[in-house]
Amino acid sequence: MPDTVYELFKNLGVWLTSGEQWSGADGIAHRLAEHLQYSLLATLIAAVIGLPLGLLIGHTGRGAFVAINLASFGRALPTVGLVVLVFLASGLSMWPVYVALVALAVPAIVTNTYAGMTAVDPDVKDAARGQGMRAHQVLFQVELPLALPLIMTGLRLALIQVVATATIAAYVSFGGLGRYVFDGLAQRDLVQVLGGAVLVALVAVVLDLALSGLQRALFLPHSRLRSSGGTPTRPA
Amino acid sequence: MIQFEAVHKRFPNGTTAVHDLTLEMPEGGVTVLVGSSGCGKTTTLRMINRMVEPTSGTIRVGGKDVLAQDAAELRRSIGYVIQQAGLFPHRTVLDNIATVPLLLGWGRRRARARAAELLETVGLAADTGKRFPHQLSGGQQQRVGVARALAADPPVLLMDEPFGAVDPVVRTQLQDELLRLQKELSKTIVFVTHDIDEAVRLGDRIAIFRTGGHLVQCAPPAELLASPADDFVTDFLGSERELKLLSLTSLKDVPQTRATPLRADEPVSAVSGDGGRWRLVTSAAGRPLGWLDTDALPATGTAGEAPLTPARALRDTDSLLSALNETIASPSGCVARVDADGAVTGVTAREEIHARAAAAHAAAGAGAARTADATRTAHAESPSFATTATPTERPA
Q1: Hey, are the CB atoms on A131 and B75 less than 8 Å from each other?
Q2: Is B174 on the interface with A (CB under 8 A)?
Q3: Does residue B162 contact residue B196 with C-beta atoms inside 8 Å?
C-alpha cells in the first residue's frame, strides 16, 4: 500500500512538471487560462449584481430578509443540478456554467456587503447625515469605505467558491481544469484526476493570498498609522 | 433666534415625544434642554435640523421655517455635535473637521486651511490633524466634534449630550472651553444634557422637560433655582438647589478686609498672637501657603517651616459656593482672597460670606418673583401635571 501511494505521488509529480503536459490545447497552461477566465468573469458578473444589491439593502435597511435568505439559499443550491437544468433549457453553451457560478457567488457577495454596511456605527451615519450629507454622500463617503473590508471578504469568498466549482464547465464538455478531473475519471487515470484537483486547489489558494495581499495594501495607510504613534499624548 | 410654535412630535409607534412645545431660544445665547431620559429633549433638538420631522407646528431658525428648506442644506448651515462625537473613523482629524466646508464646495485647500485653524480654536495641537479619530482620547475626539460643527461658521450650534461620555475632570475642562469659545463666538447654542449641574454651568436659559415631552419651565438658571415652577422642577433641581444658586454668584462684589499675612521667612519667635489665633502665611511672592496656629508654635524656625493648615485661595471670579466651601475647611473661619496673579489681597470672614450667600438667594428669589406671573401664565395650560408628576427616572 505505501508503495502504491508513493508511486501515485511520483507519477503526479511527473504529470505536473512534464513540459508536454503544460503545452498544447489540452495542456495545463491553456486549461488554467480557461479556468481563470470562467472564474473571474463569473465573479465579476456576480459582483455587478451582488454589490449594488447588498449596498442598497444595507443603506436603506429594507429587504434585509433577502440578504439573510440569500445566504442559506446559496448554501443549499445544488450547483450541478442547476447546470443540468439550464443546460436542458438552453442547450449546449457556456450559459449553464456561468448561470450556476454566478448563482453560487452572488449570495456570498450580497450577504457580506450587507453585513459590512450594517456594521457601520449608527452614530457615524447619524453624524454624516447631521453634517448635511445627502443619502448618496453618506453611502459613498462614509458607509462604503467603512464596509469595504467586509465587502472584500465577500468577494474573496465568492471567487474561491467559484474557482473550486468552475470544474463543472468540463461536465458540460467545456474546458478548464475540470477537464482533467472528468477525463481522468472516464479514463480511470487517477493521476490525471489528482493533478486536476491539486491544480484547482492551488489556484484557489494563490488567488486568495493575492486578494488578501491586495486588501492589506489597500488599507495599509490606515493600519500603518494605527500601529505607530497611536497613543494619545494629551489627556484631553 | 430659534422659535418653536405649537410643535408636536408623535412617533409611528404612538409615543408622544414632544407635546405642544412653544419656546424661544435667544440669539447668541446658550439654551440648555434638560430632563430625564425619554422626556423629548433630544427629539426637540433634532427637530431643529430636521433629523426628526415634527408631526405638527412650526420651527423657525433665524426667522425661516425649517420645513421650507432643503434638509441637507439646512443641516450644513447648523453645527451638530453628538455624544461620542460620531467622527468618521476612516478620515483624518483634519478631513473630519473639513466635512461641511467640502460639502459646501469650498475646495480642498481652503477647507483644510480652515480645519487647521479650528484645531487651534478648540485647543488641539496642529499634529493632531494628521491622526485618525481612534488615536485620540475621548476628550480630544469631543473637541474634534466641536471643531467639525464650527467649520463652516454656522450661527447655530446643536449639541446633543456632547460631554456625556467623558470622565468628570475632562468634562469640566470641556465645559470651560465651551464657555470660553462662546464668549468669543456668540453662537446660538442649543445644548441637551441630563445633568442639571452642567445645565446650570453652561446655560443662559434652562428648559426643563418632563416625561411625555412637556416643557415644564424655561428660565435663566438663577431664576429657575430660586423659584422652581412646581414640585417636579424642585425635585429635579435636587436638595442642593440653594447651593447651586450660589455657584452662579462670583466673589467680585464681596468685600475683603486687609490681611496682615506672615512672610514664610519670618522667624516664629517674632510671631505674636495679637492678630488672632490663626495667621495666614505667604511666600515671598505673596502667594498663600497656609494657616499657622499661633497657639501651637514650634520653638524655633521660620513661619514657612512650621506645620501649616492648607488654605485654598479664592479669586474674584470664583463663586460664592466655593467660598462657602472654603469657610468649612479654613480653621480661621476666613478665606484668603488673591488677585489674578495669585498674590494675597485680603481675607473675608465666614459671617460675611454667609450674609452674602443669603442676600444672593433673596435677590434671585425677588428677581424670579417679578417674572413669575409671566411664567405662570405660560404654564397655566398644564397645571394638573405640575403637582402630581412623579419622575420615574432621576438624572444620574
Answers
A1: yes
A2: yes
A3: no
Q: Is B243 on the interface with A (CB under 8 A)?
A: no
Q: Which residue of A has its CA nearest to B77?
A: A132
Encode pLDDT of A19-42 as tens digits. 777 877 788 888 899 899 999 999
pLDDT for residue A141 is more than 80:
yes
Give the E-state strand segments of chain B in sequence order.
2-10, 16-25, 30-34, 56-61, 64-65, 78-82, 156-160, 188-193, 205-210, 214-219, 262-263, 278-282, 288-293, 308-309, 334-338, 344-349
Question: Of A111, A99, A201, A110, which Cα lies nearest the Cα of A160?
Answer: A201
Q: What pLDDT was estimated at residue A66?
A: 78
A126 and B86 within 8 Å at the Cβ level: the answer is yes
Residue range B353-370: average pLDDT?
79
**pTM across the whole model:** 0.77
- Residues B274-288 pLDDT 10s: 667 888 888 888 888
Residue B36 is which amino acid? S
The structural domain count of chain A equals 1
Question: What are the tens digits of pLDDT across the range B29-61?
Answer: 999 999 888 889 999 999 999 999 999 999 999
The answer to whether residue A233 sits within a structural domain is no
Closest CA of chain A from B90, distance in Å: 7
Instruction: Specify if A42 maps to a domain.
Output: yes
> Does residue A234 lie in a domain region?
no
Is the Cβ of A75 closer than 8 Å to some Cβ of chain B? no
Inter-chain residue contact B86 with A236, CB threshold 8 Å: no
Average pLDDT for residues B380-393, to the nearest whole number? 40
Tell which residue, B344, B307, B305, B311, has the closest CA to residue B327. B311
Query: Between chains, do B75 and A132 touch, taking CB under 8 Å as contact?
Result: yes
User: To which residue does cell 426637540 refer?
Assistant: B44
Within 10 angstroms of residue B77's Cβ, the number of other Cβ atoms is 19
Q: Which domains does chain B have, with CATH numbers?
A: 2-249+368-388 (3.40.50.300), 262-354 (3.10.580.10)
Half-sphere exposure of A200 (CA within 13 A, CB side): 26
Orientation of helix A144-165 relative to helix A95-118, angle to 10°: 150
Closest-CA residue of A relative to B123 is A236
Burial class (CB in 10 A: 0-12, 13-18, 19+), B128: buried
